[in-house]
Amino acid sequence: MLEDNKISRVIFEVLTDVCGTDEVVRNPQLQLFANGLLDSFGTVELILTIYEELGIDISPSELDREMWATPEKIINYIEAKDAEAKVK
Amino acid sequence: MLLQQIDRWATLCPQRIVHQSRDESLTYAELKTYSDALAHWILRHVVSNRQPQVPIIVYGHKEAAMLVLFLACIKSGHPYIPIDISVPPERLQQIVVRSGAAAILSPRDIPDLVVASGIVCQAQIHLPEWLSGAYPPQGSVLNEDEAELPELIGYDDVWYIIFTSGSTGEPKGVQITQRALATFLDWVNREYTPRPQQEVFLNQAPFSFDLSVMDVYMALTNGGTLWSVDQTHIANPRELFQSLAASDVSYWVSTPSFAEMCLLDRGFTAELMPQLSHFLFCGEVLPNAVAAGLLQRFAQADVINMYGPTECTVAVSGVNITPDMAASNLPLPVGQSIAACQIYICEPEGRTVLPSGVHGEIVIVGPNVSIGYLHQPELTERVFLQWQEGELSRQAYRTGDIGYWQDGLLYYQGRRDFQVKLHGYRIELGEIEAQLRQLPEVENAVVIPIVRRGKNAALEAYIALRSDPVMATAVSDMGNLLRQKLSQVLPAYMLPQRYTFISSIPLTANGKADRNALRFKAVAAMQ
Predict the structure, then answer these.
(1) For B46, which DSSP code?
(2) Are B457 and A41 an interchain contact pair (Cβ–Cβ within 8 Å)?
């Protein structure tokens, strides 16, 4: 399992970079797709960085937009996936 | 003539599906019946008092009615302008004005702003209901007994007009004649050999993007099926993969960016699409890693890298990428097989043809070349020219692209100007800057691409505001405000993602905006 806070730190960093605003850190409930901050190609950036930085492999087809709608939801999803990997 | 090539399938294979979009399908018999009937309706009710060959705007997304309306316009003697719903109302209105269109037809609602402008509008065109007379909007709409119309669009008449980003702040309309389209189709059909009545073509690009001309007309001229994926599919990869698994797609036509996104998924393999025989890419640089990944996962398929600007009818060259090419460190070539035209490398702005191996501007000469921009003679004169070879004078286009020939292969190296490709979309940075400068808050603006992983990933706007520099806390609010205002006039793919506020735009020695200084600043900020 990854060190405490590493997941949220990496996600906030990459979202700030991809979305171009630190509002994603100040407001973790920010609707990323609805506000035009993230699109399909931004999601690809996110998936690639998560794999490079956290070693967690995500397939685009396991996601729908509702599951990844906000920074908080993304972090929760990745933490659950990391915990699941640890149990296995 | 193209209409004959398309209409014959209604006799040869009337029940074959020509367009599948989710649960909605359209047969070749329906395509002909509906487009014939709508052509009569257009002549009676839409453009009866107008000049011939005035364009008609067809507005929508991936509905089967879009194909019917394209052909109905042609059959009634009018070129069509395809506009996707991603185009915001103000930009659509700009296109209405600039094109002088006779009407706008849509299977959807038409934005109020455009309706209020007074152009003839017909929204909510739903074909089976119209044909059955369930709700004819203007008396008896469709009469199946009417005689077939003669071909009203000749070989040298305009077939379609695609609007692309224009550096002066407004989009420009590229006019493509039937001759140019037929020349392109002769080449791709001969070179990439689709089998009649057997192939399924992926339609990923919106109809307002000329990449879609490749899948639409390769399908229509070969009795093929168009398998449509819409914006909701692309936003939800799970749905997209379900659609692809059900598709039997044999010809994949997309931007490289779209295939790159699909490759991230382990399930994107030949098992998902066992019939797939060709990947046809155009619209942006194909990265080596994407080509290598596709060749590895789809061993039975050819990966074709194509090149061509909208002004020369989709594509004028292509090359079959081998595993060795994909594995090398060199950029992939974009041409080996050439359509019925010449591709020269010239001195920028000049007519001197440079030898193989020397870099210069790509100039395309021949029947694929557009006759020019709609109602913009000065702009047309700037980039289109007559190319003299002995007694022969032919239409030519200066692409603004830099490239070179080497060992019989054409290579693309970038642009001479401030045009960029972002996820396959062609964007004039000058158009975004001009729109920003029209906002009351903005004194001056420069837009540059943000490069990640070696390719353009997003756009960044550097803004000098009219008032004093904003307080730090208000910066993101100001960015959101500008983004929101821009979204009313520009499609989503042209919106800068980042807004950086600076006291003034740095200038070069000759007084132009110093883009390199800003680019270095952007790189430094990312490190």
Answers:
(1) I
(2) yes
Whether B172 contacts B376, CB under 8 Å: yes
Residues 2-21 of chain A whose Cβ lies under 8 A from any Cβ of chain B: 17-21
**Residue A43 in domain:** yes
The strand order across the sheet containing B372-373 reads B120-122, B103-105, B56-60, B80-84, B158-164, B172-177, B372-373
Token output for B242: 């379900």
- Cα A7–Cα A10–Cα A11 angle in degrees, nearest 5: 80
Within a domain: A39: yes
Asked whether A7 and A75 are in contact (CB, 8 A), the reply is yes
CB-CB neighbors (< 8 A) of B267 in chain A: 59, 61
Tokens of B381: 């004169």
How many domains, chain A? Answer: 1
Residue A63 belongs to domain with CATH number:
1.10.1200.10
Q: Which residue of A has its CA nearest to B475?
A: A21
Positive or negative: CA dihedral B206, B171, B217, B125: positive
Task: Mutate one of A41, A46, A47, A58 to test the B interface: name it (highest B CB count within 10 A).
Answer: A41
Chain-centre distance for alpha carbon B321: 23
Range of the domain at A83: 6-87
In a domain, A1, yes or no: no
Residue ranges in chain B modelled with pLDDT below 70:
49-50, 131-145, 468-473, 475-476, 521-527
For chain B, percent helix, then strand, then coil, each to nearest 5?
35, 30, 40
**How many whole angstroms separate alpha carbon A77 and alpha carbon A86?**
14
Q: Does domain B419-526 have CATH number 3.30.300.30?
A: yes
Please answer whether residues B85 and B108 qualify as being in contact, where contact means their C-beta atoms are separated by less than 8 angstroms: yes
Q: Is the pLDDT of residue A2 over 60?
A: no
Tokens representing residue B233 in the block: 């599919």
Instruction: Point out which residues pair with B394 in neighbouring strands.
Output: B387
Chain B interface residues facing chain A, Cβ-Cβ under 8 Å?
234-241, 257, 260-262, 264-267, 423, 452-453, 457-458, 460, 476, 479, 483, 487, 492, 495, 497-499, 526
Q: Is B225 within 8 Å of B237 (Cβ atoms)?
A: no
Structure confidence at residue B479 (pLDDT) = 85
A20 lies in some domain: yes
DSSP letter assigned to residue B339: -
Percent of chain B exceeding pLDDT 90 equals 68
Rounded to 5°, angle at Cα B213 from B155 and B271: 140
A30 is written with which tokens? Answer: 């920010």
Query: What is chain B's Cα-based Rg?
Result: 23
Torsion, CA A38, CA B431, CA B176, CA B362, rounded to 10: -100
Q: What ipTM is given for this predicted complex?
A: 0.77
Closest residue on chain B to A39 (Cα): B235
Q: Are B157 and B132 in contact (CB under 8 A)?
A: no
pLDDT band for position A39 (50/70/90)? Answer: confident
DSSP A61: G
Cβ-defined contact of B492 to A36 (cutoff 8 Å) = yes
pTM for the model: 0.90
DSSP string, B416-462: SSSEEEETTEEEEHHHHHHHHHTSTTEEEEEEEEEEETTEEEEEEEE
Q: How far apart are the first and last CA of chain A?
A: 11
- Please state the domain extents for chain B: 419-526
Which residues from A are below 8 Å from B236, CB to CB? 64-65
